[in-house]
Every structure is written in structure tokens, then in C-alpha cells.
């Protein structure tokens, strides 16, 4: 798969996945409820057992997970994808100050313009995306 196409596929899946479970701006401080919600989502994304329970309760999320597994090809790479999803979600929540409307708009914009969405992400998240998409691409060759 061509690197730019692979990156668009990864970004599209991430945008769908991140918002399925729950304009660039500097990180904003979060209120207590937003911080707790972010922590809960991150725990779910990182813990395969908790993630499995959440996927079992949501057929749409389960379908996305099957696409993630097909894309990554291994449980280790799938786990890395969910680490990336957590990083993206963190950037979205912090960049929007926890404003759900702004997060939805950012994700909608990202589905139309993955490169624009990538510009919203922190440098460390972009590096993780770049590294992971390279490893996924290497595996597909």
C-alpha cells in the first residue's frame, strides 16, 4: 500500500474509532469531568479486556475493531494502534478543552482532510503515527 494511502487509511480509522468510543488549538485545561472521562477512555483503549467488553456492547465499534485487526495483522500491532488512538483522543480532548462539538467538528474535518487533521496532532502523536504506519506498511509488503 502506498505510504500516503496507508496514512489516510490509518487516519480515517483513527478518526472513526476515536469518536466511536467517545481546528488546531493549543492545549486547554480540562475541567474535572472532562479529565475523568479522558482517563476512562484511555484506560479502555489500553486494556484489552476492558476494550473487549466495550466492543461487545457496541456492534459499530466491533466492526471498526475488525477493520483495525485486518489492517494491523497482529495482536501486538492492534495494541499499538489503540495506543495511537489514545494519543489522538488525548490531543482532541486537550485541543478542544473537552468541548464535544469542537471534537466532532475536528473529526468530521479530518475525514475530509486527513492531512489537515494530522496538523491538529501533537508532534509526539504524529511521530507515533508515522512510525506505526511504517511498520504496518512493512508488514503488508
What report would you give on this structure?
With 141 residues, the protein is mostly helical. Helices cover 82% and strands 0% of the residues. The protein is built from 8 helices and no strands. The longest helix has 22 residues. It is globular. The N and C termini lie close together (8 Å).
Instruction: Using the alpha-carbon principal axes, give the shape.
Output: globular
How many β strands by DSSP? 0
Sheet-strand content, in percent, reads under 5%
* Oligomerization: single chain
Structural category is mainly alpha
Given as residue ranges, the uncertain stretches (5+ residues, pLDDT < 50) are 19-27
* Total count of domains: 1
Observed structural traits:
141 residues; mainly alpha
Element layout with pairings:
Layout: H1 3-20, H2 32-46, H3 48-56, H4 59-72, H5 75-96, H6 100-112, H7 114-120, H8 123-140
Short description:
Helix content is 82%, strand content 0%. The protein is mainly alpha-helical and 141 residues long. It has one domain (3-140).
